[in-house]
Write a structure and sequence with these properties.
By secondary structure, the protein is of the alpha+beta class. Helix content is 51%, strand content 9%. It has a 4-stranded antiparallel β-sheet with strand order 2-3-1-4. It is flat and about 100 Å long. It starts with 13 loop residues before the first helix and ends with a strand. 15% of the residues are buried.
Length: 238
């Protein structure tokens, strides 16, 4: 006796899979699982790429492509922390009441908000009051002219502090490393590299360094580099 062919009436929804032969049902299930795993793998790879880059733009790009990812909360937290750190660095570099006020406007509850408010008030208090013009002497009066030596301008001395970020066999290798480091760490965004080939302990390696204005900056930048897996050696001379 011939078995009549089986037909499905469209649309085929959940019940369709049950009507398929066992072999087809298994194949369809395996295919669905593989597609799901492939999607998870791509998301994990994208997250690892963002972590390796560790910049606000990298995390923002990850969130745009994977808004519902299990890593979304971590991405937002790290992105916001890096932006907070970047804006604080800018405020400290300018070191003005306006720059601290701008930081507080963007980050009222930021990591550095308390210190920003304190420094804003300190800098504002340090602004000297305008000096009143001396009274004009009467025309008939004879005033002895006295030559007063102008006070010497205060010399601003920048601490001779450096961070060594690596030693390389060629200047081009040092330059490539600098480009990668500057893209990966916002703390280096405004710094300029110093690449010299002065022999170090009898070698001819090209050292990659940056000059830093204060010990506080040295500690902060070096801590960020170490957290990110980069090399950092502190020194007080070139």
């Amino acid at each position: 006796m011939n078995t009549p062919p089986m037909f499905f009436s469209p649309p085929c929804e959940r019940g369709c899979l049950k009507l398929l032969p066992a072999g087809f049902r298994k194949a369809a299930f395996v295919t669905a699982v593989l597609l799901a795993l492939a999607g998870c793998s791509k998301t994990d790879d994208a997250w690892q790429d963002a972590v390796r880059t560790d910049t606000p733009d990298a995390y923002e790009a990850f969130l745009e492509r994977n808004p519902a990812s299990k890593y979304a909360t971590q991405a937002r937290t790290r992105r916001d922390a890096l932006i907070d750190e970047r804006d604080w660095t800018v405020a400290r570099r300018e070191n003005s009441a306006a720059s601290y006020a701008k930081y507080l406007e963007v980050h009222p509850d930021g990591v550095w908000s308390g210190l920003a408010a304190q420094r804003r008030d300190q800098v504002a208090a340090e602004v000297p009051a305008p000096v009143a013009a001396p009274p004009v002497a009467p025309a008939a009066a004879t005033v002895a002219s006295t030559v007063v030596a102008a006070p010497k301008a205060a010399t601003l001395r920048t601490p001779n502090l450096y961070l060594q970020l690596g030693a390389f066999s060629s200047a081009s290798a040092a330059k490539r490393s600098w480009g990668s480091l500057q893209r990966s760490f916002v703390e280096l965004a405004e710094l300029a590299p110093i690449i010299d080939d002065t022999p170090l302990r009898g070698s001819s390696l090209y050292r990659l360094r940056v000059a830093v204005a204060s010990q506080e900056e040295v500690d902060r930048i070096c801590a960020a580099l170490v957290r990110g897996g980069a090399e950092c050696i502190k020194s007080k001379s070139r």
